[in-house]
Amino acid sequence: MLAGRTEIGMVGDDLLVADGVGGPRVLLLAGRSWLVTSIDWQRRRCQVEPTDLPGKAKWGGRNGGVSFELARGMRDFLGGSDPQGITLTRRAISAIAELRSDHGANITVDATVIRQADDETRWWTWAGTAANRCLAVSLPELVDRQQRIGDRSLRLRSGLTVKEIQTALDDEVRLRLPSVDRNALSGLKFSVALPPALAERTVAERLADMSSASAVLMEKRVFMRSS
Question: Domain of life here (predicted)?
Fold first, then answer.
């Protein structure tokens, strides 16, 4: 990642390959936000410039994001499950208590939480980045397209009622693979030897977790209202 000729750092391919983000691509790196202005897929470089828009940091994992298993481990831990066989420092205990206070309201046992507030409605799936990508592209009538897909939750479209959300999720959902920026296919190894449709599907499958997305849809859901 370059700002002019200055190297800022490195980011995972998934941040740039996944299409359908909506709005500008803004990354958080080196302590500030950067707006992606161009991408050279062949050389695997992107140009950025400083911006005041909010950016998002992404930590590595399977498919360039947090996996379903790790996200669920995070949920269990924040829900009160303590790690066994280790001794925590006072500082760690204090930090954990703060995190649990911040996120505890978005966690229930054996269910996902859909929390409605005056300014937004958010579905706390704790499903991991790849599964959330599948859910977002498969539920366009529910999920707000203008967001960067993360590992813990999805922002839903404004103005939806509880009944509308529940009905859409109770219906049989046909899961789809995430959309892919077709310009990224030129950077795929052996892409010249692959038919475009096969190359696109290959990249999309790397970005997806269909089985975990299906598991989330089968789970119970709890609706909550923020005061």
Answer: Bacteria
pLDDT value at position 16?
63
Q: Given a cut of 70, is residue 47 above it in pLDDT?
A: yes
Instruction: Give me the percent of the chain exceeding a pLDDT of 90.
Output: 47
Higher pLDDT, 220 or 62: 220
Report the phi/psi class of residue 49: left, alpha or beta, with left for phi > 0 and alpha for psi in -120 to 50.
Answer: beta
pLDDT band at 219, cuts 50/70/90? very high
DSSP code at position 106:
G
How many CA atoms within 13 Å lie on the side-chain side of 194?
15
Q: Quick one: CA dihedral 109, 131, 169, 120, positive or negative?
A: positive
Look at the chain and report how many structural domains it folds into. Answer: 2
Question: Is 201 part of any domain?
Answer: no
From the list 203, 211, 212, the residue with the least C-alpha distance to 63 is 203
pTM of this structure? 0.73
Q: Residue 129: name the closest of 48, 43, 60 by CA.
A: 60
| DSSP 3-state of 38 | strand
Which residue in 88, 118, 115, 91 sits closest to 103, CA to CA? Answer: 115
